[in-house]
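Example record

The entry below shows one chain as it appears in the dataset: sequence first, then structure tokens.
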Amino acid sequence: MSNELVARAQLFGAIEGGLNFWAREVLEKGAEKVIELCKENEYKEDTRIILNTNGHQVLETLLKHGLELIIPGSKFFELPAPPIALTVKGNKDLLTSKSIAIVGTRNPTPYGQKVASEMAANFVDREWVVVSGGAYGIDAAAHKGALIAEGETIAVLASGLNVLYPAGNARLFAAIEESGLLVSEYMPGTPALPFRFLNRNRIIAAIADGTMVVEAAFRSGALRTAHDAAHLNRVVMAIPGPINSPLSEGCHRLIGDGSAMICTGVNDAMELMR
């Protein structure tokens, strides 16, 4: 066990995910150096919670829950707030596989559910991993589409991995854990709160090589994932829908302002992903 991993665990157990200052400090200086600077009172921020957290105890807690702590790779470095660490359960090697994020509304139409499921299956047939957020609606349809096609999928959650949210997707999460991967930047016991969903979206965008939005209202959180992906210079695609459907307004907005490229099928997507 490396000293850097223990130091990351100490910071991970003390700091809320998505805080830009600490995230950049750890990325630029390394966790061991950050803790050293905390001990020397070099920060204006209150560091007592960091110094009172034991990295070895954090790792033991994760182990009790069957979780592994990993140090995020270079695909996360361009985020304004790269995760200090991630907890994972399942096949962590999927994080380096070719992958597509499929995201959208929690309240899709039958059209949106069908498109998300079929797109996921089509990507799996081409040996891509499907990434989403484990929520009801488009997320669940994408995960299920990948699993039905006997492929692999990654769910990035906005809670600790022992507080699976939403609880109604418990069977889906169990299936993902068995053949795919569950990911979180939160300690066990951390509940899903609105701001954590927005923070979670940047992790989805960073893991995937491209992001596809399937049905999203004008102010949908899925648009945040698309903008995070664009910030990372990843391919962003949107599926068009009926012009009078509120659940396609977000997709049409992305296409209209040039934030996303129009996608009407997996062949379009594969061409755009080249």
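Notes for this example: The CA atoms of residues 66 and 228 lie 30 Å apart. The mean pLDDT is 96.
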